[in-house]
Amino acid sequence: MAITTITTTTTNPCQHYNRFEEAKKLDESKTRVKGLVDSGLTTIPHILHHPPQNSPNPKPSTRNPKLSLPIVDLSSTRSTVVDQIRHAASTIGFFQIINHDIPKIVMDLMLSSIKSFHELPDTTRMQCYGRDMSHGVAYYTNVDLYKCKEANWRDSLEPELTVGLKWHTDPVGLTVLLVNEVRGLQVKHVEDWIDVKPDPSGLIVNIGDILQEATCDFEETMISNDEYKSVEHRVLANPSREPRVSIPVFFTSRMTENMYGPLSEVVSPEKPAAYRQFTISNFMEKYYSEELRGKSVMNAYKVSNI
């Protein structure tokens, strides 16, 4: 199969280049970044270069090696589990759960199945490629490919020049994440980035924007009003030849026109509503219309920005 080739040079990262054309070629190849590597690419395209100030590798002096994600044992008493999750959700915004009763063999099968899909022949995977999410399945590279200044690159080629997934928050209620042993996820905590070491039998859980603003329970709406934290996280470009496999499951409300606003129980004269009313459909539309970066969409709904 012929693969669209993207050529570039790394001698001058500031040189002029046609960003739209590079994005279009990458998208139209329908093989994602794996296809570029398989085609014999030796340097990454210019569109994947990130500026030095966005380097995912913080200076050693700013790193705190003692920082780690809390681990919640679901076999503990209910009160203990509730207290631990509440504390993690209101401070770091991420935690790992163990003893969740999902058999290890099922988790391993999920990881191997996803890996097997990406190792299918290009001609097979190309049949699934597309950005239209209305069909229930979408398979493409970079959710913000046509909007971002720099695209993401997850493969092992020149990892020092790029980022696997830019820092962002999730536009959902909760994210439950299953990953293999290849590390790369980092979670921002104050000014540090926590290197996440996944528990082999665990799942990673993080608070999404909607839960920080609004906790969704079918037709009912509850607002945490910043009690729980949706924090920025990112993924480093993978320097290993072993692929990193990541399977997120996003939990949120249905795309309805129901209005979401602060729950009266968490609003007071001392702590007024932090966010204005919004709908899930409007929030998601705004999220996907912008570049994936930080909390820009979430901040747009703050009362101070009305």
TrEMBL record:
InterPro entries: IPNS-like_FE2OG_OXY, IPNS-like_sf, Oxoglu/Fe-dep_dioxygenase_dom
Annotated segments matching region Disordered: 44-68
Domain of life: Eukaryota
Keyword hit for rRNA-binding: no
PROSITE patterns xrefs: FE2OG_OXY
Keyword Phosphoprotein: no
Keywords assigned by UniProt, alphabetized: Iron, Metal-binding, Oxidoreductase
One Gene Ontology term of the molecular function aspect: metal ion binding
Positions of the Fe2OG dioxygenase domain: 144-253
UniProt record similarity statement: Belongs to the iron/ascorbate-dependent oxidoreductase family.
PANTHER family: OS06G0255100 PROTEIN (PTHR10209:SF751), OXIDOREDUCTASE, 2OG-FE II OXYGENASE FAMILY PROTEIN (PTHR10209)
Protein name listed in UniProt: Fe2OG dioxygenase domain-containing protein
Organism field: Ilex paraguariensis
The organism's taxonomic lineage, starting at the top: Eukaryota, Viridiplantae, Streptophyta, Embryophyta, Tracheophyta
